[in-house]
Amino acid sequence: MPINERINSTEELRSWTDRIPLRYEYTAGVAGEHFLRALKKGEILAGKCVRCGKRYVPPKSYCVDCFVPIEEFEPIGPRGTVTALTESWVDFDGRRRPSPTVFAFVTFKGAEGGIIQRAEGKGLRVGSAVEPRFAPEAERKGSLADIEKFVTV
Questions:
Q1: Residue 4 in 3-state DSSP?
Q2: How far apart (Å, rounded) are the C-alpha atoms in residues 101 and 109?
Q3: CA dist 56 to 2, 20, 76, 151, Å?
Q4: How far is CA 115 from CA 18, 59, 106, 141, in A?
Q5: Under a CB-based contact definition with an 8 Å cutoff, are residues 107 and 113 in contact?
Q6: Which domains can be identified in the chain, with CATH numbers?
Q7: DSSP β-bridge partners for residue 130
Q8: Whole-prediction pTM value?
Q9: How far is Cα 31 from Cα 68, in angstroms, rounded to an integer?
Q10: What is the DSSP string of 58-99?
């Protein structure tokens, strides 16, 4: 039976398996690039609006209040505050873990936003002061994984 007849017949053709080779490349953008390069150096960077002075972690491309492009970046922290906590009993492969991994949303004084990362330490709770523990310098790649975890101060 010719292919066009099979395609026109819903009874005979139910699915089609094939591959389309696609390659995607995403960039972090200008603000994200500054942020990731700073993480590789062991710093946390905020973007600062030149009009209103508002700071953002991670940096944004534009101020959400002034709509001005963000072109200034400055180190922030390293001390932050835990503003939310959660724990996961399942790993990234869907298997149950013997103990939970704790994740925290960490904010920084004088900045909007924050970073979600693993956290641990004695007395860890919402309101705890924490500092980042960066991967060894030779292992950093310029990603959020360069912060291995936040630990209580």
A1: helix
A2: 26
A3: 61, 39, 10, 22
A4: 40, 11, 5, 17
A5: yes
A6: 26-152 (2.40.50.140)
A7: 80, 152
A8: 0.81
A9: 13
A10: SPPSB-TTT-PBP-EEEEE-S-EEEEEEEEEEE-TTSPEEEE
For residues 118 and 101, the answer to whether their CB atoms sit within 8 Å is yes
* 127 token code pair: 């309101």
**Residue-wise pLDDT tens digits, 142-153:** 999 999 999 999
Gap between the Cα atoms of 14 and 9, Å rounded: 9
| Helices assigned H by DSSP within the chain | 3-8, 29-41
Query: If we measure between CA atoms, which residue out of 89, 57, 52, 93 comes closest to residue 74?
Result: 57
Radius of gyration of the chain (CA): 22
N-terminal to C-terminal alpha carbon distance within the chain: 73
Question: Comparing C-alpha atoms, which of 105, 151, 113, 104 is closest to residue 32?
Answer: 113
Site of tokens 């900045």: 111
Bridge pairing between strands 44-48 and 115-120: unpaired
State how far the Cα of 63 lies from the Cα of 73, in Å rounded to an integer. 13
> What would the pLDDT profile of 76-132 be if each residue is shown by its tens digit?
999 999 999 999 999 888 899 999 999 999 999 999 999 999 999 999 999 999 999
Q: Record the tokens describing residue 105, joined without a space.
A: 């949303």
Q: Are 102 and 124 in contact (CB under 8 A)?
A: yes
